[in-house]
Design a protein that fits this description.
Chain lengths: 102, 262
Amino acid sequence: MCTWITEKVPMTGRARGVPEWISVTQANVSYDHPSCAPFDHAVLIDFVNPEDGVGARIGIELSATSARALVSALNQALATPEAVRDLHAQSTRAAAPVGSRG
Amino acid sequence: MVKDGMIVEMVGFPGHLGDVIEGYYARPVAPDPTPGVVVLHHAPGLDPWSKEVVRKFAYAGYATVAPHLYHRRGPGDWADVAAAARADGLATAMPNEQVSGDIAGAAAYLRAQPGANGRVGVIGFCSGGRQAFLAACDVPSLDAAVDCWGGSILPRQSDPAGWRPHGRGVIHRAADMSMPLLGIFGNDDSNPEPGEVDEIERVLTELGKTFEFHRYDGAGHAFFCHDKPNYRQEQAVDGWSKVFAFFEAHLRREDAHVHLDH
């Protein structure tokens, strides 16, 4: 069923996207110098599909505090009964995650 | 010299192994013999700030090019190319020998331009600072090098969580340093932190190398970057004056013309 539950958390950061939907097959996460956000370091999250070239990317740069708030909001969303049920179902057929710490 | 006149364009030139890589090139419109500067962008890539630095040198009378060190990971927008390269990791995106080859190619490109006085320096920021240090040891065709807060010049241990891989550094190449080096550092930086800058100083002194370091209180990493909170106006103005004094002394001195004749 529709949950109609949305966590809204204040954020400080920058994002850069693409005009159309893309397949996302990998997320790259780091804490490093951002390209645009006004911080020395930031949490950098790129949702990408490497097979479609470097432009297949949604890039997000968040302050450390904002990223922690995002983690909290994600966990809140994942605590709904629907998410708990799906997590359980998916854990039985999950593919191995892509892991890289280049 | 017509200081306000410059020509700015994207160019291509052969880099490491003859790969044609792109560069952001700005040159002054001036009749004088012109020294050259190679600008090495910081880790976020060939971004608008790095391009401003190129134009800043052109305004000061230097033909200047910033090789796009992530070029091979393209094509694409600079931010996407940088993101892909950074995800690959430093050793894959910018191996030392590739960077040295690209820098040598950029220097050759500048020397081949009409009006070049034959002298070329290199300046790099952040990861580019480390690469400028490497170039001072590995690209003997250069005449002077400036390292601005280059991190990981010394070997680094990996941390217990495994996030920071073991780094060999480039200090072991210091014996090969063949040109004067200028270093600009903030004392609040954590890579390189002041103790590491002390160690780099010690090694260069022991080897009898020609270098001068300027270390600023009240400044950390990347304190020239006016688009970030790291910017420190007073220290940045002084730091830039040290950079230009250094390049004027080593790239535009009178015997530059004699150098051309040989």
